[in-house]
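Lecture 7 notes: from sequence to structure.
We start with the chain below.
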Amino acid sequence: MVTVDPKSTALVLIDLQEGILGYPLAPLSGKELLSQGKALAAKFRAAGAPVVLVNVGWAADSKDVLRAPVDYPTHPEGGLPAGFSKLAEGLAAAGDILITKRQWGAFTGTELDLQLRRRGIRTIVLGGVATNMGVESTARQARDLNYGVVLARQATTSVNAEMHDFAVNRIFPLISRVTDDITFS
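Predicted structure tokens for the same chain:
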């Protein structure tokens, strides 16, 4: 169990959007992840803590997509399906902070840090997809910016269970606290 102060803690959910939740995911399916994300968001809202919903998206012409040479590109040839970046139905609520990112991490090139600091946030609780990509990149960036980081294990998943398990068991303990139970002080 990890106890956080709702006055200085925000929930940050990564990529709970139509175009990603439909992919095969593990250990949680997209439907299971969305259910867990909604429940966690409701808990944070009830405590008066900010909820940040981050989606990934690019311009229709894809000119703002990262193009660094890699062995396994993750942006599909020919672009993305319509509605790819739309947040999952029923996730957002009035007062939530909405951030669109253009790469894996949610801090680089966005106003996430500004929005958190203006609200006095010092700790972020992270969930979303993919544990070892967008969630991990955001956690690393948050740590570099001196935020306390908590991984909500029950609200994370990846493209396969092995990558998820490695990140949760090997990487996240080095850069955050990992828990399935978050309480408020």
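Points to note: The mean pLDDT is 94. The beta strands are 2-4, 9-14, 51-56, 97-101, 123-129, 148-157, 177-179, 182-184.
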